[in-house]
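Ligand: NAP. Inputs:
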Amino acid sequence: MTGLEQASAADRVNGARPPAVAECDAVVVGAGFGGIYAIYRLRQLGLRVIGIEAGADVGGTWYWNRYPGARCDIPSLFYSYTWSPELRQEWRWSEKYAAQPEILDYARRVADRFHLRAAIRFDTRVTTADWDEASRSWTLRTDRGDSIVASYCVMATGNLSVPNKPKLRGLERFGGPVYHTGQWPHGEIDFSGQRVAVIGTGSSGVQTIPLIAKVARRLTVFQRTPNYSVPSRNAPLSDADVAAAEPVIAKYRESLETPEFGRVPANAFDAPVPERDVQWTRYEELWEQGGGGILTAFPNILTNEAVNDVACEFVRDKIRGIVKDETTAEALSPKDYPLGVKRICIDSDYFATYNLPHVELVDLREEPLEAVTETGVATATRSFALDALVLATGYDAMTGALAAMEIRGRDGTSLKAAWADGPSAYLGLMVSGFPNLFVVTGPGSPSVIGNVIHACENHVEWITACLESMRAKGLTRIEPEHDAERGWMAHVADAASRTLYPKANSWYQGANITGKPRVFMPYVGQGYRHRIAQIAQRDYEGFIRR
Ligand code: NAP
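Predicted complex:
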């Protein structure tokens, strides 16, 4: 039986309504920036494509993250696709760091401009995906009871798409509304006059806290670990800003590499340690400039502790300068991990918010959170009466969305079982045992380090070029060699171990999720784009194509 016949038979048995089974060449799961571009490129190849998206619209993370203050942390002019010069000319960002509604509008514009919506099934979640070796096809089932059979499956399910909802004792008893920043309701949430608590001080918390403080009667922030945050200096964009960015973007497309904060440059390991004064002056300049540029101040800032220590001290000094209450300033100052090895936060007035009389920081390291009650939150020493609770507690990052589906590859092996000791993917693109299944910005690729839109573009272009070359050769099956994958993941681990990245309990290594294996997931080495391009040129070295 082919995959299509199997799917029809299963649906006849299980479904009350007539089975809906569709066949296509490629199925794309997720309609965020990776997914919609994949649909576009695959259709350009002349393939029949079906997209599946859990949300009611395109946008991925920007569809779900509607919390007050949500905006990009890479300048908008670069937080954009580079592949369409027309789109670049037609779209005009209003601010240096665009807010969520504008980014969502951009994704919608792309979907409309390139007629992508008709290919996408919205409000639909994939539950299982099964590989059938005989027919060389994937059968995906959805929560609507439908099946899609496709030769190729592209998982564009995002790295930060499954919210981490911590099991706080008593949370279900709380009488008021509980919001997660990553699943924010549509429509206006009015906190005015309310007593609100935010749990979590990562990028989401740091962005939303100043906005909630503007309207709430009282805002209590529960912080477990302080974060390094730098000012965005957000401002309206001028025509001159737009004109200045264009050659940089054009160069990026040519060179395949882009200067991004968070990446470790090739000259990191033999760069000199600058004098402290030289460093301090440079950090001052970059602080005034705003944004994540501080992480590009010196090539060895993410590899040399002596350099990084000065940067940490610089930011702590800034915090002490802004926050008037000394105890609060100390509690807000990170001291036990290097700068930049958790994603740096980019804020607008975050630290200054703690000077407002109705805003209080509760340091959970001093007074642990005991329970959520019917009326608020209790720590070891105090009770806080609340009207609303905001969880800014992050995501089951990089693997969460893939683990939420039952994906069974060759010989029925489940992806969850294959990744029981941590994720593994050749080049972060494909997994041994799971033929014809591509992962956009998967673990083992740079993905979340730097600019994710560019990372998505890079992967989508690589995947579509690969499929095009297979078609030209009459090939229909691709899978990475097990040894090539193992070698690559060893290299990913080695690249991280040569940096300061492993020195923080970050979501980069799954440390925020209880029981998740500790594996450093993003690739922080150099020349990734060149490397995967070379592998393609060498007839897809490390892949078995037939
Ligand atoms: P996050 O960085 O993982 O931060 C989660 C916060 O919740 C941390 O402060 C964490 O404390 C805290 N937390 C988690 N469980 C807790 C518990 N049981 N009790 C108390 N505190 C708890 O998540 P995020 O802020 O959503 O950001 C995730 C990533 O999304 C970012 O790093 C970034 O890449 C991306 N993002 C980007 C932007 C942007 O600026 N464009 C905005 C939002 C998100 P610990 O640190 O102690 O675990």
